[in-house]
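Handout, section 3.2

Students often ask what a structure token actually looks like in practice. Rather than define it abstractly, here is a full record for 5-oxoprolinase subunit PxpB. The first block is the sequence as you would receive it.
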Amino acid sequence: MSDFQLMPIGERGMQLWLPTPRDSTMGLLQQQQIWRLAEQCRDDPDFAEVVPGMNNLTLLLAEANPAFDWQRKIGECRRRSQKHKHGARHHKIPICYDGPDLGFIAQYHRLSDKEVIRLHSQGRYNVYFLGFLPGFAYLGGLPEALATPRRENPRLQVPAGSVGIGGQQTGIYPCSAPGGWQLLGHTSVPLLDSEHCLLQPGDSLEFVISETGA
């Protein structure tokens, strides 16, 4: 198991960092380690907030305590996490591949539109973390052949449900917002409401081709 590097954040916070993974397989193993540890920390009354990120985990104490023994507490949570499997769900998300940037993605990689659709829909993805927007899931597992730079000029408004590619990741916009990802399709599945986010760190998903995205 990789060792975390600890970085204090103010009087109540600590950020735990893992080394940059050498490949996607190691990256997924490290994220799984973070997800399991996050579950155990959430059950600990000493922590008010637990936020998993990419190669990192942020912890915020319920109360400021200059004498808090971070090493001991994190060690306890890590030992518990080794005994548990992360409780993840699998989602099948319908997608209509009608995005305005589908042609650009195909041209960038010298592929046909159909080849882009085939590669993207055959991928198996994992929710690495949530960020940028409430409920926006950064998905690992994008085929290397589809990794595409973000747009030079971001759109002022991207419709909710848009599915895009940004660098080596793919994702779904849970709500309408500005964004610079290359859009290749959309889904009608609601990802966010007033009570919860459909996708959570550690979940897996696949895209199912649909004529309507529903």
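Discussion prompt for tutorial groups: The CA atoms of residues 3 and 204 lie 25 Å apart. How would you have guessed this from the sequence alone?
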